[in-house]
Amino acid sequence: MNPVVQYAAVGLGRASVDSGLAERLANPVPQAGALGGPDLVVIYLEGLERRYGDTAIWGDAYAPLAELAREGLEFTDIGQSAGTGWSLAGMVASQCGVPLVANGFRFKNNYTEQTDFLTGRVCLGDMLAARGYDMEYIVGGDLEFAGINHFYASHGVRDQLGKRQIEALHPADFIAKATIDWVLDDELIFETAKARYGALATGPSPVALFVETIGPHGATAYLSRRCSDDGQARKSGDLARVVRCTSDDTHHAVRAIQAEAAARGRDLRIVLMSDHLSHHVGDPEWERRVPRRNTVIFLGGAWAGSVNDRAGTMVDVYPTLLDWLGFAARPVRGGLGVSLLSDQHSLVAELGLEAFDEALMFDPALSTAIWR
Hints:
- The chain is of the alpha/beta class.
- It has 15 helices and 16 strands.
- It has helices spanning 3-12, 55-58, 63-71, 87-96, 124-130, 148-154, 163-167, 172-178, 186-200, 239-263, 284-289, 314-325, 347-351, 353-362, 364-371, and strands spanning 39-45, 73-75, 78-79, 134-139, 159-161, 179-180, 183-184, 207-212, 221-223, 234-236, 268-274, 296-299, 306-308, 312-313, 333-334, 337-338.
- Strand 6 (179-180) and strand 7 (183-184) form a beta hairpin.
- The chain is globular, with a radius of gyration of 20 Å.
């Protein structure tokens, strides 16, 4: 069913609620007069949630990410609330602190005409732009998909590389090997990210790079060419193989970018997170045994080598990230999120996930306030 029709049908069958959350929306308060900061690389790992770390089911598929997590600050209880369960929504939540709720008849991936995308909200890109960052976004699909290009452009990230732009940089036979249906493989996306970081790091400004992968998207996953038997990127139903491949590619890219930054004497922070939980439903018994949580790992800066087990959702990642970077006045709030590095209670901890979801889906005042 068309997601707009589905959303309308569900809404007609439910009474609206007055959650009072519209009054709790907040934009972060920037640190006064501050410019610059460490380089920031944010890597969204499509559907690569923490449950893939269950070795009883997936063996060592998650091991490269687990190694990185031990070096950084790992968040172990980041759940998925309504309005955050697909790529665009996960990016919006983790960069603006709000779920991607409907805007009139626009919902889910139907924002291709939304050229002014949440411009009333102060998002991560806005905070970075105000501090003088050079920013780019890299993805293996079309930039126009779902209106993701408008989201980034509306918040200061105007330099964007998608499928067509990356294809223009390579010979046709090379691109053919790296193409899976409608996307380029993660191997090429990481190669592009490493090259772009190296180029941007030659300049005087701090760098912010946003990278979106595809790998373990769902039951049908996307295997990079270096992991396939014949060197051709392809669809795969072997999720463990794809998770391991994407985990390895991520690990290699992180090490290469870290080495580049160290060679140039640049301060660097890296964020690894699943953009949402996997679209692969999984076995019911496994679902009961292994809680579904998003992967969220901060590398560099304070709290390295530690674990944060406070309950949150993707909307809390944004203010937590600002707090970790030291870019906002404490206590840090952003959208509906709070910093999990503070003693504030997240909304999911305060209300429970069911009540929080109900407010997000059925409170018209909240939807209006988010888009105002």
